Amino acid sequence: MPTPDAAVMDRRAGIVEELRRIVPGDGVIASEAERRVYESDGLTAYRQLPLVVVLPSTVDQVAAVLRFCKQLGVKVVPRGAGTSLSGGALPLADGVLLGMAKFNRVLEIDYDNRCAIVQPGVTNLAISKAVEGAGFYYAPDPSSQIACTIGGNVAENSGGVHCLKYGLTTNNILGIEMVLMDGEVIRLGGKHLDAENYDVLGVMTGSEGLLGVVTEVTVRILRKPTTARALLVGFPTTENAADCVAAVIAAGIIPAGMEMMDRPAIHAAEAFVKVGYPLDVEALLIIELDGPPPEVDHLIERVERIARDHHATAIRASRDEAERLAFWSGRKAAFPAVGRISPDYYCMDGTIPRSRLAEVLSRMRVLSDRYRLGVANVFHAGDGNLHPLILYDANSPDQVERAEAFGADILRLCVEVGGVLTGEHGVGVEKRDLMGTMFDEFDLAHQQRLKCAFDPGGLLNPGKVFPQLHRCAELGRLHVRGGRLPFPDLPRF
Amino acid sequence: MSRLAPTDLRELRDAIGESLAADEPLELIAGGSKRVLGRPLQLPHSLDLSGITGIRDYQPSELVLTAAAATPIEEIETALAAAGQILAFEPPDWGTLLGLPATAARQRTLGGVLACNLSGPRRIKSGAARDHFLGFRGVSGRGEVFKAGGKVVKNVTGYDLCKLMAGSYGTLAAIEEVTIKVLPQPETVSTILLCGLDAAAAVRRLGRALASPHEVSGAVYIEDSSTLGLAFVSPPTGVAALRLEGPDPSVKFRRERLLAELASDCEPHVLDEKASAAFWQAARDVRPLADLEHRVIWRVSVAPSRGAELGEVIASSLDTKWYLDWAGGLVWLAIAGADDGGAAVIRAAIRGADGLGTGHATLIKGSPELRRSVPVFEPQPGPLASLAVRIKESFDPRRILNPGRMVEGI
């Protein structure tokens, strides 16, 4: 992380005092014991006590906090529920942690326009709960949906198991209100579709808290599908399972969810939830189809046929809702289940072209041997998003080091086969130093200059996403050869 | 006027580098089908990208296609069709709407469609062009090659610059290669027509259909059924049309349900697969307003429930022909006889009586004088407009690429 600014640290008492003036009452947290609560997010390997925590409850307060911090050159780290798995909300020793938890109200539900306006601290699941009485839901469903907030979902462009069919956050929001580092309040979009000029909403989504602080979100809500059924399919090899996934999609079927687990993940999950997962297979697929009953029944049959053609050894179709949920319970409990067989696990998040899956899994096994650490794989098979869980013991510094090196090698492997570093968890601090494996200096400079357009002082969430910090003036320098025509061979007409 | 015509990435970089050095801005052009969109440009040089063409990688089972930016849409759609796939956002062909001659000069390209973020009726279900734009490589106004995004369907690594490029009308970078998400062609399609409805009643029904679990993938309202080739509706009436796509048993089931839920007091018709394909292509291409030579065309995006009222308010004070797509959320207007093309009335109607309405109006067709004198894109409030200038400057500080195409000074 950037070296803490001693001048800012020295002025801590004055900063706390001014923040208390802006956010009166219990909105400023200064004591060490209470700040400790905020020292990490879902990536618990990284910890840092923030300079001070501020919990504003109005947009004016957010704007005033940011204006004040900009004036003093104090860094700001925005935070929702702190469930980031990439350290996106990791505090800075010399930075104000801006918690949005008090923005927790659903402001409007508009069924005529099939949208809801919510504050950023509302949890993902609470949106679906607020509209379920009318048969609606909010589609993106990250596994942390019970805790994670919609503001954090916008920052991370969160996905979930259903995003192959229903899209990520970016495909399911219509508008936001946000505050820039200089305190300007900007509204983007609304209840209508598409941007009127540059799609700033699109670029804000997934910007990991580096461009602005979201203070309101308008989300699309969808009518719940009439029915859903799931197939549980075991295969003798991961190649068979991967080929089956490709064949389902090539047959023109986009399932609502298509999840794969490898042998270690299957065994861990079955030991934990005991729902009857086959234990004599190398790979397990859960394929969910949703829609009207005739469509679901029709597609279940077709997918079953495809699975048989790909040497499936065990096939079960859910007969009722209880059975469908039972199929999912093992997958949904995969992380805690792995947590039972290992003191700690480190969850990775690369995406690969699915055609390379078998190769990537076999090379991962080689890495597993080399680093002497186990790995269990759960995988959003439909969209190629891998979640390898590296098993280690956080009490052993040597194992921590090996787990991180193993994880970095897995992500390099994802990029090498044509994939990307992160499918849904974000870059944060975790993958920051790997950005160079995917992007060259020009790619990164174009991204960093965009940050300069929003936050020229580089005060908002610095140290995340980009491996090197550059001053905006330095990034903005233009390298042109003055006035002459340097390219005489260019075709001219 | 000189024309630079690079055929690969290096030549593209050199062309922009040269213009940057000479401080001479460029008009970006490929197929030419969208040249009359946006504010008119009068620049001494053009950058012809049409030589940067060809599909580079297509893996149907990965749902991903990578192509050179100026690859014609026809070529892409032909390759997709062979594997039973489509561009789900339905890139429209506005050639007839814009009054372009039916020649190669109206060739739509993949890069052009993405640069303008153009989508058809399926926008409401499957998303816009921007939602299918996964990655790109190009040259910014700094004369530097850069890339963003990836070649897989799920990726959050770095800022989503694809979104920024989509709809930027070539003002930030010249795109050389794009990767897009493609989807299976629905097995079959059917259309329900509800005849004899006025706009308000139609929008209520379209809204109910979209709020149902029946996965409607198209929802338009036309005042005059004859303008979309529905000759069998006699005499012509207002018609709401709903598209259902998917496996045959599913489409049948949903059609029966929707007819039962919506058609109680209006006369329903059903279009078969072939008639549906023709109908939705015509809707996609704005055919109801396509042969009105002297009218100014606007495209207005608002909250769907406001579409009917907005159309009626505008039609009550201006000579207007109009229809609705996106279940009321997209209002197409053809205006005659207003000095400003109707800009003031249309934009006031979007704000509404309370001034709180959101949405935007884009001038799609008008004379060069009109496109110069009224804002083609919705004017933005101060802080957002300043941010747009700073974004432009971060990619194109010398304003080399399509300067003034969207907004004066950008």
Verbal overview:
The complex is a heterodimer of chains A (493) and B (410). By secondary structure, chain A is α+β, with helices and mostly antiparallel strands. Chain A has helices at residues 6-10, 12-22, 32-35, 59-72, 124-131, 150-156, 163-166, 200-204, 238-250, 263-273, 293-309, 321-332, 334-341, 357-371, 397-416, 435-438, 441-454, 472-476, and strands at residues 28-29, 52-54, 75-79, 95-99, 106-110, 115-118, 136-137, 173-179, 185-189, 213-220, 222-223, 227-235, 257-262, 283-291, 314-317, 344-347, 375-380, 385-392. Chain A is globular and about 70 Å long. The termini of chain A are far apart. The model of chain A has no long low-confidence stretch (mean pLDDT 94). An eight-stranded antiparallel β-sheet of chain B has the order 14-11-13-12-16-17-15-18. A five-stranded antiparallel β-sheet of chain B has the order 4-5-9-7-8. The radius of gyration of chain B is 21 Å and the shape is globular. Chain B is α+β, with helices and mostly antiparallel strands and 410 residues long. The longest helix of chain B is centred in the middle third of the chain and has 15 residues, at 248-262. At the A-B interface, strand 9, helix 8, helix 9, helix 11 and helix 17 of A face strand 1, helix 1, strand 8, helix 5 and strand 10 of B.
